[in-house]
Amino acid sequence: MHAVELSQVTKRFGHNIIAVDNIDLVVAAGSFVTLLGPSGCGKTTTLRMIAGLETPSAGEIRIKDQRINDVPIHKRNLGIVFQNYALFPHKTIAANVGFGLKYRNVAPDEIGRRVARALDMVRLPGVEERYPTQLSGGQQQRIALARALVIEPDVLLLDEPLSALDANLREEMRVEIKNIQRRVGIATVFVTHDQGEALAMSDHVVVMNKGRIEQAGAPREVYEHPHSAFVASFLGNANFITGQVRSAADGHAQVALGAHVLNATTERRLQAGESVTVVVRAEKIDLLPPGQGGLPGTVADVDYLGALARYQITLEDGTRLLSLASLKDKPLAVGQLVELRIDPQHCRIL
Ligand SMILES: Nc1ncnc2c1ncn2[C@@H]1O[C@H](COP(=O)(O)OP(=O)(O)OP(=O)(O)O)[C@@H](O)[C@H]1O
Ligand SMILES: [Mg+2]
């Protein structure tokens, strides 16, 4: 039984806007699934349809095998945390967290016990009598999480819950949310446009673009085996190199770049002479001194990042590549001649 299942779900607004375009999505029981994509790609709309805040124009949504298209939001047992889902400022933390239980007519002493347990879970025990403004931003977001969890929902829906927090707190809350999710074992749909967040937190990443799902899979799979230029570049640090296939067999290909050859891997059937695009992540490019038979290039620019250096490398044909190298020594200088070595494993033909 899946926690959530979307089959051929579409959402139109008016005649012209297709916010979500015929998507299929499965959230396995207990898993953490992230919807990742640029602004406007349909992440929030998808989450709002699961929540019952929007009705699909077509398709079916099931929660625990039950079709819920026509079930109103208050009859779906879901925990929701939105970016701006503010706490009630004039209610105590106890009243905020207990809100959903009171609404469900749970007895007051039972509410007290469950609120205390939820506050323990988010590591804020004993703050029942305080007011939201007496807590920090990160603490308030933890209270919002406690409020979502206290009703013991079937699914937890999180829409960019960390985006209002500063960078350090974000990282901390990332770990916190992931730990709580694992401990409670609750199926979670998390929305973000931050690729680092998606890769760090998820069991399954769903990359969306213009209302469609571009690719879905485990974080490493979508990062290392992107199926499209969009996925490769959205997940960060992608280089694209175009060349002609010289030979191809058994998943391996030699790609000619002028007088030089790049060894690549592919899942496609390729013809000699065909023009192809090879994707290489910046951190997979090693820069060596010249004279070792690698791909020659020149350092065009250097960003010193402390533990890392980010190099712009120009190849002989003018192609610009990005290389990220960990720094044990001083960085290479602009104008220096280098050779690029890339493991064929990490040169993937799109
Ligand atoms: N109520 C609405 N009426 C009309 N258009 C809408 C409505 N809600 C969303 N849209 C449009 O649907 C598309 C998807 O919006 P959605 O909010 O789902 O994007 P998103 O991926 O969450 O983006 P962001 O990262 O900016 O939050 C956008 O083009 C948006 O303008
Ligand atoms: Mg959104």
What is the approximate shape? elongated
Could you spell the SSE succession in H and E letters? EEEHEEEHHHEHEHEEHHEEEEEEEEEE
Q: Provide the gyration radius in Å.
A: 25 Å
Low-confidence stretches: none
Distance between the termini: 35 Å
Largest pleated sheet: 6 strands, mixed
CATH homologous superfamily label of the largest domain: P-loop containing nucleotide triphosphate hydrolases
CATH C-level category of the largest domain:
Alpha Beta
Q: Label the CATH architecture of the largest domain.
A: 3-Layer(aba) Sandwich
* Structural class designation: alpha+beta
What is the helical fraction, as a range of percent?
10-25%
Concise description?
The protein is α+β, with helices and mostly antiparallel strands. Helix content is 24%, strand content 38%. It has helices at 43-51, 93-103, 108-121, 137-149, 167-184, 195-201, 219-224, 229-234; strands at residues 2-13, 17-28, 32-36, 58-63, 66-67, 78-82, 155-159, 187-192, 204-209, 212-217, 238-249, 252-257, 260-265, 275-281, 285-288, 295-304, 308-315, 320-326, 337-342, 348-349.
What does this structure look like?
The chain is of the alpha+beta class and 350 residues long. The chain folds into 2 domains: 2-232, P-loop containing nucleotide triphosphate hydrolases (Rossmann fold); 237-349, Beta Barrel (OB fold (Dihydrolipoamide Acetyltransferase, E2P)). 24% of the residues lie in helices and 38% in strands. The protein has 8 helices and 20 strands. It has helices spanning 43-51, 93-103, 108-121, 137-149, 167-184, 195-201, 219-224, 229-234; strands at residues 2-13, 17-28, 32-36, 58-63, 66-67, 78-82, 155-159, 187-192, 204-209, 212-217, 238-249, 252-257, 260-265, 275-281, 285-288, 295-304, 308-315, 320-326, 337-342, 348-349. The strands form 4 sheets. It has a 6-stranded mixed beta sheet with strand order 6-7-8-3-9-10, with helices on both faces. A 5-stranded antiparallel beta sheet has the order 13-12-11-14-20. It has a 5-stranded antiparallel beta sheet with strand order 15-19-16-17-18, with no helix packed on it. Strand 9 and strand 10 (212-217) form a beta hairpin. The longest helix has 18 residues, at 167-184. The structure holds adenosine-5'-triphosphate (ATP) and magnesium ion. Residues 43-44 line the site of magnesium ion. Adenosine-5'-triphosphate is lined by residues 13, 17, 19, 37, 39-45, 193.
